[in-house]
Amino acid sequence: EFIAKWEKAWFAMAQQYNGDKKAFFNQMIELIPQLMEEVQGFTLETWKSLEDHFPEQTAAWKDNEERLKQFYEFIKSLPKQDLAQNPEA
User: Fold this and answer.
1) Single pTM value for the model
2) What does the alpha-carbon distance between residue 31 and residue 38 come to, in Å, rounded to a whole number?
């Protein structure tokens, strides 16, 4: 359910902002905290299911868990308007 929801969201966003990179990245920035909040709420059963279906991806997640948490905190701390003006900042 989680995978299907986010695949659908990312695909819809890619279609909606096709050709408008700035709008696409702005929307990505908006969705990342929501995605991370959902991931933080996963139960052990959910993680087990993801590990069974996506072993390489979940292994990469576990191997980089601290970096991903730092990235999440970084994204949350960014002023949205500045990032929209200069995505490379």
Assistant:
1) 0.52
2) 11
